[in-house]
Amino acid sequence: MGKNYVDIENERGETLRYRKHSNGRGLIAHGAKVHASAMIEAGAYIEPGAHVGAGARIGHGVWVEHDATIGPDVLIAPHAHIASQAAIGAGAKIGVRTYIGERAQVAIGSLIGDDETIQDGEHVATDRRGLRLAA
């Protein structure tokens, strides 16, 4: 049986330890809080201070930066990037290769399509078809 953690050196030469999440084997940094029922696929990274709610599904290659909040039952498709301090509301869906900027907020139940960019600090709400609602 292999070890249940990985040590990775960051750009400042510091070694960070990530544990493998029991549900999907994605990497969770020390200080991140991930609900046991969340699925974190292998190849995904959850940074320190991030929170991932119950039933969330984080795809392969997703990077959730420090202090980001992922609500319950959120679906984040592969290779998306959730920047620091961003917040994704419960039940939202984030598409493949989509970038959610720093401090951006995606409303509950919103649908953000593939290859989209939500700018830093932007607040987005959509209907179930992905059409943006007035703020």
Automatic annotation (TrEMBL):
Q: Which InterPro entries match?
A: Hexapep, Hexapep_transf_CS, Trimer_LpxA-like_sf
Keyword tags: Acyltransferase, Repeat, Transferase
- What are the protein's GO molecular function terms? acyltransferase activity
Q: Which SUPFAM superfamilies does this one have?
A: Trimeric LpxA-like enzymes
Q: Which domain of life is it from?
A: Bacteria
Q: What protein am I looking at? A: UDP-3-O-[3-hydroxymyristoyl] glucosamine N-acyltransferase
Q: Give the species.
A: Microbacterium halimionae
